[in-house]
């Protein structure tokens, strides 16, 4: 089976890489654009080299299509696309290759880029017309946080938004909890080892059909529109948002009480509260370093939380964790999102379509 990409990653070293050199030249019109000058800047040379590599890998793929070792050619083409920032294309090439070949590397690459996004709503969403207000924080501290593929954050840009009232009615949340507890009973308990590096007591949303149907309608009507409205500079259209992974987590005194500081495998993450804060003591999404937008206050730890149906939505690469509860039970749905986008701006699918 493919290696499951951990959706949370606990940094072994608190220092994350700061500035990453951008590898493509936006100034040339991006990936695929013809160079206009004879004297090329380094960036232009790099963009041209990537275009050449994509061409070579595509040609190599065409040549070996029906031969042994073809899986290697698909992997190579995907890797070249990743290098060029063509992430939507890389995902589709890895997936197309994995479909043709029983190859562990291709399946693992598909899982890394696509996650479980095919199980979740993708495409047109409702308009965000909700009157809910949000508390806003800058998170991640003074240094540049790690990029997540298409979404990169300059210092001060990473945000966390905590809703001040529910986005989802409490009765829907109650039903989800009841369905989870019923399923856990049938399955002999909550899963404890799905995430190797930051294990939670959890259950995949995609594995519980009634919850999945509800969740997808909420992604479309509420959660994706809300996210796009909070991050307009990073998300052009809610229809481009993908859910990499979503699961229900239970914190209680018998099982898991907290979650260590980590970064998520996401551009944007949500913690969706399923029950009220009065049901437990402690708890909440704990950001290692936060302060108010526009302030020069010292960075300090901040715990954000909401009652049932409320959310905390944030840049997933800002270090955070689950604050320890000291009594009661807390249920949340962590949701990890990315944007289906090529750095060139070309419509997703153009490389795979070209392969016929
Ligand atoms: O407990 C929380 O609020 C944080 C959960 C979290 O960060 C995660 O599940 O990745
Ligand atoms: Fe997380």
Our estimate of the beta-strand percent is: 15-25%
Please summarize the sheet with the most strands. 13 strands, antiparallel
The quaternary organization reads as single chain
Number of strands: 13
H/E element sequence: EHHHHEEHEHEEEEEEEEEH
- How many distinct helices? 7
- Distance linking N and C termini: 28 Å
Round the mean pLDDT to the nearest integer and report it: 87
Helix content: 25-40%
Detail the poorly predicted runs.
Answer: 11-30
Cα-atom Rg, whole angstroms? 21 Å
Q: List bound small molecules.
A: 2-oxoglutaric acid, fe (ii) ion
Query: Shape from CA axes?
Result: globular
- The SS-based structural class is alpha+beta
3D structure, described in words:
30% of the residues lie in helices and 22% in strands. The chain has seven helices and 13 strands. Residues 8, 200, 249, 259, 264, 271, 285, 320, 322, 332, 334 line the site of 2-oxoglutaric acid (AKG).
What's the structural blueprint in terms of helices and strands?
Blueprint: E1 8-9, H1 42-64, H2 70-83, H3 87-100, H4 104-114, E2 134-139, E3 159-163, H5 170-187, E4 202-204, H6 209-230, E5 241-252, E6 259-264, E7 268-273, E8 280-282, E9 285-291, E10 300-304, E11 311-315, E12 320-322, E13 325-339, H7 350-355
Antiparallel strand pairs: 1-6, 2-3, 2-9, 3-11, 4-5, 5-13, 6-12, 7-11, 7-13, 8-13, 9-10, 9-12
Helix pairs in contact: 1-2, 2-3, 3-4
The structure holds 2-oxoglutaric acid (AKG) and fe (ii) ion.
Brief digest:
This protein is of the alpha+beta class and 356 residues long. Helix content is 30%, strand content 22%. It starts with 7 loop residues before the first strand and ends with a helix.
């Amino acid at each position: 089976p493919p290696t499951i990409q951990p959706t949370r990653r606990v940094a072994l070293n608190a220092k994350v890489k700061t500035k990453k050199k951008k590898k493509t030249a936006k100034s040339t019109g991006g990936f695929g654009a013809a160079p206009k000058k004879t004297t090329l800047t380094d960036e232009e040379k790099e963009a041209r080299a990537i275009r050449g590599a994509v061409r070579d890998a595509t040609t190599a793929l065409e040549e070996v299509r029906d031969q042994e070792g073809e899986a290697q050619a698909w992997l190579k083409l995907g890797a070249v696309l990743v290098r060029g920032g063509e992430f939507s294309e890389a995902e589709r090439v890895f997936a197309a290759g994995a479909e043709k070949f029983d190859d562990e590397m291709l399946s693992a690459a598909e899982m890394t880029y696509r996650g479980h996004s095919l199980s979740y709503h993708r495409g047109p969403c409702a308009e965000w017309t909700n009157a809910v207000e949000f508390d806003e924080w800058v998170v991640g501290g003074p240094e540049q946080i790690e990029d997540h593929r298409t979404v990169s954050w300059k210092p001060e840009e990473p945000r966390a938004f905590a809703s001040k009232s529910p986005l989802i009615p409490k009765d829907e949340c109650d039903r989800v909890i009841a369905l989870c507890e019923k399923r856990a009973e049938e399955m002999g308990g909550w899963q404890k080892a799905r995430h190797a590096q930051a294990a939670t007591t959890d259950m995949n949303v995609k594995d519980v059909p009634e919850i999945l149907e509800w969740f997808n309608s909420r992604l479309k009507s509420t959660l994706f529109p809300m996210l796009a409205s909070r991050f307009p500079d990073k998300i052009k259209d809610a229809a481009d948002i993908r859910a990499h992974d979503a699961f229900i987590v239970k914190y209680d005194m018998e099982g898991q009480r907290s979650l260590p500081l980590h970064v998520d495998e996401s551009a944007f993450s949500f913690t969706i509260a399923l029950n009220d804060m009065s049901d437990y003591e402690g708890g909440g999404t704990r950001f290692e370093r936060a302060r108010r937008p526009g302030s020069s206050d010292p960075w300090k730890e901040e715990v954000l939380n909401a009652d049932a149906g409320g959310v905390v939505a944030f840049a997933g690469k800002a270090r955070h964790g689950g604050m320890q509860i000291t009594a009661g039970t807390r249920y949340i749905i962590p949701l990890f999102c990315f944007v289906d986008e090529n750095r060139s701006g070309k419509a997703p699918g153009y490389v795979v379509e070209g392969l016929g």
